Structure formats: C-alpha cells, structure tokens
Amino acid sequence: MLVLVATNLTQKDPKYGRENDFNWCRPGELVTFAFECDSLEYGEDRIDDSCGCHRSLGGCETRKATTTILVLDREITQEQYQFAILTHLKEGGWLKPELTSPEEAIEWVTQDSQELLKIAAFFKEGDILEKRGDDFKLRATVLAESLERVKAAHPAQAGA
C-alpha cells in the first residue's frame, strides 16, 4: 500500500528544497496530520512563518514534524496504518476521555487515514512531497534505479 513517510531528501536542496525545511522525524516513519495553529487566518504568506505547522506533517512514532514527505509502498494493512495513527494521537494526549469520545476517536483516525492514503495514491512511489497549507506538491522523484537504496534508508517502524 502506498503511504507517506518522513524523509530528509531534498531538505534545503538549492534546486528542490526550501531554506526553512526541517525534519525531526526518523526517516521512514509513517506521518500523519498534526495540530495546526490559526496563523493562516492572517494571510497565505504565513505558511512560511517560524511556526511551520502549515507546511509539515507529524511522525506517528516520534510525534515530531517534517516538511518533506516520501511516498513509499509498504507491506502494511489498513488496520496497522490506522493503529499507528491512533497510537500517535493517544500518546500525544489527544484522546483523553474529557477531550474525545471513543466514537470521535474512531472517526478521526478513519478520516485521517483515508485522506492520507488518498494523497499517497495520487502520487507514485518515490515521489518526494511538500505540504503547503492544505495542498501537497511534488518536489522531486527518486529515480527508479535509486529506489531500493532509498527504501533501505527509510525503514519501516516497528509494527508497520
């Protein structure tokens, strides 16, 4: 199944990257949507402000952020994928009973996983993406002859 994972590829690259790139995730870990502040209400140019939340996704394992995302084909079931997102939310403190009911948690995980899988399916394996507000854009594509080396440098996390 095609999924989105964290990567360092194209980070700050003069041709493909951005000066304000960051990756505090483990390369290869699954990523999901993360909290976003309301700075975009003050203008589109705020995507590149110091916050970074409107141009990044969060690592399911580290719960840290990255501005570069790689599309990879992984041996993972939809249930395992949803469990990774659920664990991310639970360990991040978002699924406390006073904040979220079990039904809301299931709906949240289902919606996020479906949206992320739809984004991954729109691209092809080896595509390196960036998030710009609500949009995902192609930065570069890993050459077919380099894909196995790139996959080896982006191992799956435990259980995924």
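^ that was protein a. below is b, sequence first then the tokens
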Amino acid sequence: MFGCHAFYHIDDNLRTSKLNEKAVSGIYVGHLENSTSVLNFNTTTSKVVHHGHVQFIEDVDRYGKVVAQHKAPPTPLLDTSDQPELLTLPVNFTDCQSVPAFARVTGHAVYYDGEHERLGLVKVVTPESPGGVWVYFHALLHEDSQSNAAVKMIQYLVAHSAICNMNNFHPIFAQVEVKPKGKNARDKPNETAFIVSADSKDKNGYQVGYIAQRELGCQDVLVGQVVFPPILTAIHSPGPERAACHSGSTVPVVPTRQLSVTSLAEQAAIASVLEFCSVSAVSPSARTYSNYVEPRNYQHSQTFADAEQWEAATQSEVQSFIDMGVINPCNYNEIPPDMYVVDSRMIYKLKLNKDGTIDKYKARLVCRGFTQVYGENYDETYAPVTQLVTVRIVIALCLHFRLVPHHLDVKTAFLNSTLKHEVYVKLPKGVTLAGKMYGKAIKSIYGWKQAGHDWHQLQETCILGFDSRIRKSEVDPCLYIIVEGDFVALISTHVDDYIVASTEDAWYQRFLKAFSARFEVNDLGVLDHILQMSIEWQPFYKSVSISQHRYILETAEKYNLENIRPQQTPMEKGLQLTPALVCDTSLPYRNIIGALLWIARASRPDILYAVIYLAKFASCHDSQHFKAAKRVLRYLVTTADYKLTYHQQPKSEKLKIVTYSDSDGRAITLTGNRFQDQLCF
C-alpha cells in the first residue's frame, strides 16, 4: 500500500559487523519501472532508494501523513550517496579482469557505486582463496575466465532458488535473451546472457555478459534488445527420460524444443544444472522433487521443460472423458439460454512415491463447483472419508489375522457416477473435446459439489452388492467387514484409494475381478504407502511400522527448518502460553499447526498433546506461539526416523483394548480450574 512503512534489507555481505543494522527504515512510494525493485523514501535523508527485498508494515494513518509532510526530491534519482552500508565492498574483494580458475560460486550480491550504478558481485572459491573471494560478476563471465564459469553460475542460482525463489537484485543476475542489432538482425538468433550491471539513472540499457558467445565479452545493450522470460521455465523439472552421468546416477533429459536451446554450450549448461539438481548439493536425500512447482494451467504446462509429460497427462484425462462418456460436446449456441454454464480448469500434480521419486504426472479436469446453485444443479453433498485411526486399525488387524493388505486405486473415480441434474460445462482454454469447447455433463466431474456424494453412493452399492455377507461398520461408514467363522475380510475406502484384505486369496481375486469389471482399477500390490504414510512390513508379517519421514522433511523444508539445531523434546517443560492480544496473521501459524496435526494423528502420538495445546491459539497467536510450533517441527526433524510399530501377537490370543494413564491425571493445568488426563489406548 502506498505510503506504508517499509524496511529494506541490507545484504549480509555488505555489513562490516554482525552488530550493524540489518535493514534501513523507509516509506514505500512505488515500484521501479520494468523491474521488481521497490522504491523507498528515506525520511531522514529525503532520498529515494530502491531495493528488491522489502518488508512492509501497512500503517496508513501514521505513515501516510509522514510522506505528505516531507518534501520529495525534484526527480526520483534513486540516490544512495548517504547510504554507507550499500557503498561498502566486502572485505575480501578483488578487482580482477577475469577468473581463470575457481571451484564453485558460493554467494552473490550487488554493489552500489557513487554514480548510481548497480554492479553484480559473486563470491567464488579459488585455489588461492579456499575461503572464498568476491569479484565482479562481469569478471566471472569474461572470455579469459574458466570455460564453464556460466554453467557454475547457473548451478549456484538453481541451488539458491530452492531457498529463495525471488531475485532480490533484479534485474542483476537475471538470465535473458539479447536481440542482435544492425544489418540482417532479424536473421540472427537471440543470444542468452546474464545482466551484470545496471545504471539507476540510465533507463535505456543494461550491461550483459554472454553465456554461450564468450568471445563477445560484456557489452552495453539497449532495453529494447533485452527479452526477459515471461514465465520462469522449470529447467530443473523432472522427466521420465534418463541419461547416465559421470557419478553413476541418472539425471532427467530435458527436451530442447521447449527450452529453445540453439547451441551445444547451452545444452551442456542445462545438462549440468539437471545433474546438479539430482545430487546432494541441492538435496542430500531422495527428495529431489519436493520443491517442484506444478503448472498453474494448460498454457503454463506447455512452457515447462517436461511439457511432453504434462501434455500426455492432459490427453489421458481428456481420453478418459471420451471413453466414459462424461461430457457430450456441443457448441455455445446449442446451450439453452436459461442454463448456467460452469467454468473448468486443469489441475496438475506430480505424484511421488514414498521414497520421493516420481510416480506419475497427473492431470485433472476440475469444474468450478463454487458457482453452482443449490436446488438448481445440485442437492446432496455429504460424502464421508475414512478416519486415520481406522487405517491404523485395519493395518493392525491385518497383522493379527495374518492378512495380506492389497492397495487398489480407481482411476478417474468421480467420472463413473451419473449426474442427476442438467449442467453445461465450458472446457479450459486450450483443451477441446471433438474440437468443441462446451459440453453437457452426463456424469459427475471433479469439482462438482455433489461429485463426492455420488461417487460414494455408487462405490458403496458395488461393494455391498458383491457379497451379501459384507456389512458396513457402525463406527466408520467407509469400513466394510466380513467375519464368519475363520473367514475375515476387510475393505477400507478413502475416496478412490482402497485397502482390501481377506484370509482367502481366492475371495480377493473374485472381488478384484468384479470391481475391475465396473471401474478402471489399478492394483498397486501390497500396501506400502497411503495418505502420506509409509508402511513397512517385516518378513513373514512379524511386525509392521508406520512412518512419515518424507512428509516431515518436506514440511520442515517448506518452513526452512530442515537444517536446524536438534531438539529432543516437542515442548518446553512447564510451558504456559497466553492468547495474543493482536493476532499476527503474517505468520503461517495455522498452516504449520495443520501439518503437525496430520502427522500427530497419523503416526506420531508423541507430539499430540503439544500440537493440541498449540492449536488452541489458532485465532490469537504471535511470535511466541509460532516459536513453540517450530520447536515441535524441529523435534520431528530430529526424530524423523521414529516409527509407530505393531508387533504380531500369538493368533490364539484375542484382541483387546488396553488403556494407560499417567499416575497423576490432574497434573497438567490448562486454564482456570480445567484439567486434562493423560490417556493412551
């Protein structure tokens, strides 16, 4: 908001002491044209400066008046002459023309000189300076520098994007294309380059360093020659094709057509980046794709390096609509004038296995059901899903009765149920059925308010109709059981995921055949992962363990807590928090509590009390509550390998529920005279 208080960050490399201020106070007065840099008015010096990393505090009543009471400079010169923090070069800086040999890039920053020019700086590890030395960015790209300098810079920026996906120094360090000029310019291809410096007073050009054509050196080019990528191309996107690398591992091969790669040097650079993304320099575990960002829509998916895989997933979804007769294609003029047309969009998801490797590319056509009208195009919406405790009980029963739990998945489940109302759909842009963009919905589509309800009713009818002995649980409506003498069968459903187990393999094969005749079913084998839980069965089913190692690390990585100090307890002893007077909505407190609740309910009861206690402050939290929530997550990272294990008991013993309680059930005071007993079942 214009006029709000803004603190712009001082890069750590430009601070001479750790006790110096980390930010400079200013007032937000706009954005720099053709840039993501923010313009800030310093009320002390009455100067306007720009920066890429800014924290806003919107207090219009106070700071709006401050802006009005100060006389602004006649022109926004972006003067930094009174900002000594931004004019200080790093202590270990070397002004060299080129960098003949170096091992890797370890840092980057921007230096503001006294003439309003912003110069890129990079920190490199050289044989002479193993601790790292700062040099100008244009020196790194000099033709006399190491031949793969641009490749190593790209590697560093890709690794850095996993921590911060925003270029705080834009346009410096931006990878762009430079249009040629002069005669026959249209017949010449664009050259890829880095922007190495920019003049705040000169709005007409940049200085660029070329990536492939190193002999061109660093040149000043006009703004009109520079082409910024409209969408960030996912050059580190995974693909199914693989190529062997020198380390013996495999890396994805990116189709060069989507990346517009025109030279062998660029291909080598991209291959090195992909290899870099697959080794421990970015991720020490198999979580290579945990930070992968899926396409927002169909057009966005076509800009990805793995566009062919997303296109195949899209066509597979469209083919499912055709094969199952979900939509009857039509033209817009064929739709009755009194009928409301519901929009739709494509949702893309990269499905991973329990070890973090790619399972499949998944595309889903989803309707915007929030535009539906009750009574006109939908009525019943209730659709139950199984509880996490039910899944654990089914796993424990399989262990006790020596059952083999099979994992089934129904493809495009919602598309099987017939729609009871007359609804017309507009297909997403770029997606057609028989060359038409509109259609009448014959069956339920993902996103309909009634889709879940209709699918649950249909699959329940099929399950109960398969065997007259099947009974639905009175506790969980998604659990179906048969107990008849020595014969036991269990069916647990969670939308389109099924756990099916029985004492007779022939009964399971008959069920699978009957279910597959009605729906398209994928038999995923013995249950090894479901609902973000990893299931490990010991030989001869002597025991089974449930863990969430990958999900815990992904959650920690999401909140930048993967490399932290170990924590041995989830909660501080005797912690007593009070509701915050002002809720700090800028903190992702509710998000982290939601993730912790899922982990606690699925496989980690040791954090359940701490999470429930912290969940009370979901609407009245501040930094103290957020700190306590992060402590729980730090504890989970420390103990990520912990597993919830069930051991097989003698078959002659009957199952029984045992309850444990602490010796003093009234030891923990919550609020006032209320107490909570500690029970474990």
